[in-house]
Design a protein that fits this description.
By secondary structure, the protein is mostly helical. 66% of the residues lie in helices and 0% in strands. It has 4 helices and no strands.
Length: 95
């Protein structure tokens, strides 16, 4: 998937909506972590390879903490990543 694909299927809109949630974060560290999380999501979505198991593990505690805020927006992004992980093995290039 290239940048045009990400933009065309609405994923980029979801990522931009996630960024707007920055104002709802409780502290500066959560705001920074949200930005890092979005950067990592974009990286995974623009990669030629399917995501590796545990690719977002470092954000586990953050996601648990802010899940009620993120969940209404993040499902399309997670669905796209899951599709890549579940339907393509790591030996096969995504694009």
């Amino acid at each position: 998937m290239n940048n045009n694909d990400v933009q065309n299927n609405g994923i980029e809109d979801c990522l931009n909506q996630l960024l707007t949630l920055k104002s709802k974060m409780r502290n500066d560290q959560d705001k920074v972590t949200l930005q890092e999380f979005i950067i990592e999501l974009r990286h995974l979505l623009n990669s030629n390879d399917p995501p590796k198991r545990g690719a977002l593990k470092k954000f586990n505690k953050f996601i648990d903490k802010v899940w009620p805020t993120l969940s209404p927006i993040i499902f399309p992004v997670l669905s796209e990543l899951a599709k890549r992980f579940l339907f393509y093995n790591n030996d096969k290039k995504w694009r």
